[in-house]
Design goal:
7-stranded parallel β-sheet; 8-stranded mixed β-sheet; UDP N-Acetylglucosamine Acyltransferase, domain 1; 0% helix; 147 residues
Length: 147
């Protein structure tokens, strides 16, 4: 289901829903039964697994790989350039990987090259600057493991 005010140029799996004002770019690949909320943006080189929830206004930029059953909260941003400059080609710190079953709270910022482990929990508003171990819970700025 693509909302009439959504733009879906990428490949989406059966049962995936894209809501109003969301934009899925041509090279993006979304699995089955995903839900992309209002105003979300998914760039070309993004791959989502099955049953991924992308809440409103989340920004998923090139190089992101997301496993199955992941929750991405509203306003989450996945950065993809470690040295951003206007009118200078993007440099790469490698892909961001989010393991199956992970949850990322509202307004979290995930920096380039980070891996978030399977079933990890990233608290709301976190700035994730290093890898998050599988099953860990992180909070704060910079994010730190609390459980």
């Amino acid at each position: 289901m693509i909302h009439p005010d959504g733009i879906c140029e990428g490949k989406i799996g059966d049962g995936t829903r894209v809501w109003a004002f969301a934009h899925v770019m041509p090279g993006a690949v979304l699995g089955q039964d995903c839900n992309v909320g209002e105003g979300a943006y998914i760039e070309d080189d993004v791959i989502l697994g099955d049953r991924v929830t992308v809440k409103n206004r989340a920004q998923l930029f090139d190089g992101l790989r997301v496993g199955d059953d992941v929750f991405i909260g509203p306003g989450v941003v996945f950065c993809n350039d470690p040295s951003p400059r206007s009118r200078v080609p993007r440099t790469s710190a490698g892909p961001i990987t989010v393991g199956a079953g992970a949850s990322i709270g509202a307004n979290a910022t995930i920096l380039p090259g980070v891996t978030i482990g399977q079933d990890a929990m990233v608290g709301a508003g976190c700035v994730v600057v290093r890898d998050v171990p599988p099953g860990a819970t992180v909070i704060g700025n910079p994010a730190r493991v609390v459980r």
